[in-house]
């Protein structure tokens, strides 16, 4: 078997039993791996109506067939479970080095079942798997946990862990690996915490076999050349990280400010990637086999760690009306330590600030730290309180939708399917608005990054205000992304490469005969299996929408002034292109064509 290592590790946490199963190669090829294969297997094994914190809920950590190979950025893995934040399928992606190490140990995926009676962690060293007591690291932040477990593991082990937010079942909790890489969105860390599983330590001595080494060398050489020569992957991201977008997005009037009350922040430049690189960058921090190196490692005073990313800078910056980059870096650091999603936390604090601004949250609720737009000290303190569920932080740890709904104004939460929308105002980018609304895991920019054509002009420049062709672009980007996530590569490579490049890498690694159409067809199949699961879980098509503010209140000022998200005009065309019914249900024709 090429690309895949051919084994699944099934872990019963209740009985402390592990079994090794053979990977179904036919099923793997049909659903590719990673996101696709894990979703298919999860949907087959778990009741869609399960409570995410029920011990019968499972969690699948899956690599792709290109993970651990010489392909550029082949270091990704996915976490698939039922989301406690949204009730949808959760499918969270992370990079670093942990995913390849799992394959080197001989496993394509881990299926976690049941619940341990006491805090534990897994130690995997090739075919040796142990359950170990984790009481001594339970309650510790991610860096302390990782450092301690490094002393208990073989040299060069890779460690995946949750922080206090996961233990405290925050619906925004992340799973962290390699200290500061995060499977960040949808609350997957809380599901791991509900199982009393603190960490998974992995050390492997094997390798991933490929079908055609010489062909792969040639394909990788060509792909790396495209990545180096592309303006985004070869220049912008290596120099300034994802925060290179701060000024670009703000100048276009697409930068949500003060909880999406505005779409441009007059002090955005003070939080830019250029300033981050000039004053706070210690070094670049690339993932496994990454020729881009967008990761940042920054320092402020005695605080030092990975990040922040563009979305983090926006969430704690413009969305909260804050221009203090040092405090933003600190808030990002504490998100990593608590093990919690920076986008959802920053956006929830911004929602809290509007609730305070409008009188719903009172001074008496705040224990001396006002939730005021522009209050830089608040973002660090409230991040800690959310992670620890202290005071009002207990309510905020449930996410902005439940926070706003508790005051009777859910419309002040800028979410789709209860997950916080990231750093692009959909009133000013019509395709991205449709992508947000139809995303299978709620508000998400990386399920179909329409910013690429609508703002950056890749692979071609689209009029961001126009509706023409946008439904088709959204479907293509969503299907394309589903394949990339399932392959084990990083989405950022798609700035420079197209579907034929991914087909060529896949073919060289596993010995297939894919073309560009096969790539999109596989992605379409994966997208639909997620949709079918969500429908069975009660996430009906009425939730394919955006917050009322974004549909009805025009952007008040700036380059995008006067625009709203014209979702109602795009959604029928999108459903038709997907071969769904007029009310958003996959038809028999659709399922037959995709062999579902």
Describe this structure in words.
By secondary structure, the protein is of the alpha+beta class. The chain has three domains: 7-203, Aldehyde Ferredoxin Oxidoreductase,  A, domain 1; 241-420, Aldehyde Ferredoxin Oxidoreductase Protein, subunit A, domain 2, CATH 1.10.569.10; 430-495 and 515-593, Aldehyde Ferredoxin Oxidoreductase Protein, subunit A, domain 3 (Orthogonal Bundle). 40% of the residues lie in helices and 13% in strands. A hairpin with a 2-residue loop joins strand 7 (120-125) and strand 8 (128-133). Helix 2 (34-45) packs parallel to helix 21 (516-536) and helix 7 (213-229) runs antiparallel to helix 20 (499-510). The longest helix has 21 residues, at 516-536. The radius of gyration is 22 Å and the shape is globular. The chain starts with 6 loop residues before the first strand and ends with a helix. The relative contact order is 0.13. The mean pLDDT is 98.
């Amino acid at each position: 078997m090429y690309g895949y290592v051919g084994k699944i590790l099934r872990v019963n946490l209740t009985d402390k039993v592990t079994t090794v199963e053979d990977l179904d190669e036919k099923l793997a090829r049909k659903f590719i791996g990673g996101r696709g294969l894990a979703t298919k297997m999860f949907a087959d094994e778990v009741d869609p109506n399960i409570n995410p914190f029920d011990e019968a809920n499972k969690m699948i950590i899956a690599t792709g067939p290109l993970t651990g190979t010489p392909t550029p950025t082949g270091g990704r893995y996915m976490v698939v479970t039922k989301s406690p934040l949204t009730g949808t399928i959760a499918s969270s992606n992370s990079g670093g080095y942990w995913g390849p190490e799992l394959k080197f140990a001989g496993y394509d995926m881990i299926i976690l079942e049941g619940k341990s009676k006491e805090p534990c962690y897994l130690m995997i060293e090739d075919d040796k798997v142990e359950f170990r007591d984790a009481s001594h690291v339970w309650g510790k932040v991610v860096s302390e946990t990782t450092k301690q477990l490094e002393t208990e593991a073989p040299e060069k082990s890779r460690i995946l862990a949750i922080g206090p937010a996961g233990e405290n079942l925050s619906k925004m909790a992340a799973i962290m690996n390699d200290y500061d890489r995060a499977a960040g969105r949808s609350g997957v860390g809380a599901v791991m915490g509900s199982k009393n599983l603190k960490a998974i330590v992995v050390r492997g001595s094997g390798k991933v076999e490929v079908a055609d080494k010489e062909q792969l060398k040639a394909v990788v050489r060509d792909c790396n050349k495209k990545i180096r020569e592309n303006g985004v992957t070869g220049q912008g991201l290596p120099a300034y990280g994802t925060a290179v977008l701060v000024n670009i997005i703000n100048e276009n009037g697409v930068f949500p400010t003060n909880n999406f009350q505005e779409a441009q922040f007059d002090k955005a430049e003070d939080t830019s990637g250029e300033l981050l690189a000039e004053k706070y960058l210690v070094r670049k921090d690339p993932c496994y086999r990454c020729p881009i190196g967008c990761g940042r490692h920054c320092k402020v005073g005695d605080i030092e760690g990975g990040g922040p990313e563009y979305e983090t800078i926006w969430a704690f910056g413009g969305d909260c009306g804050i221009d203090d980059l040092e405090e933003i870096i600190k808030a990002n650091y504490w998100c990593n330590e608590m093990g919690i999603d920076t986008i959802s936390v920053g956006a929830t604090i911004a929602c809290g600030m509007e609730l305070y601004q409008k009188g719903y949250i009172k001074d008496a609720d705040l224990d001396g730290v006002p939730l005021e737009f522009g209050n830089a000290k608040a973002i660090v303190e409230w991040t800690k309180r959310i992670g620890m569920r202290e005071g009002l932080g207990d309510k905020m740890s449930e996410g902005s939708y439940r926070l706003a709904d508790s005051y009777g104004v859910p419309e002040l939460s800028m979410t789709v399917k209860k997950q916080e929308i990231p750093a692009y105002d959909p009133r000013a980018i019509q395709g991205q608005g449709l992508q947000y609304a139809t995303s299978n895991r709620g508000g998400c920019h990386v399920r179909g990054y329409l910013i690429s054509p609508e703002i950056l002009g890749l692979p071609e420049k689209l009029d961001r205000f126009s509706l023409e062709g946008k439904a088709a672009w959204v479907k293509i980007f969503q299907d394309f992304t589903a394949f990339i996530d399932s392959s084990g590569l990083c989405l950022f490579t798609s700035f420079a490469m197209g579907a034929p490049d991914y087909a060529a890498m896949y073919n060289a690694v596993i010995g297939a005969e894919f073309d560009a159409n096969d790539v999109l067809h596989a992605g379409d199949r994966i997208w639909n299996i997620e949709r079918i699961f969500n429908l069975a879980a009660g996430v009906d098509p009425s939730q394919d929408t955006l917050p009322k503010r974004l549909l009805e209140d025009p952007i008040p000022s700036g380059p995008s002034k006067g625009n709203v998200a014209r979702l109602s005009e795009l959604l029928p065309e999108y459903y038709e292109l997907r071969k769904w019914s007029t009310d958003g249900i996959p038809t028999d024709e659709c399922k037959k064509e995709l062999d579902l």
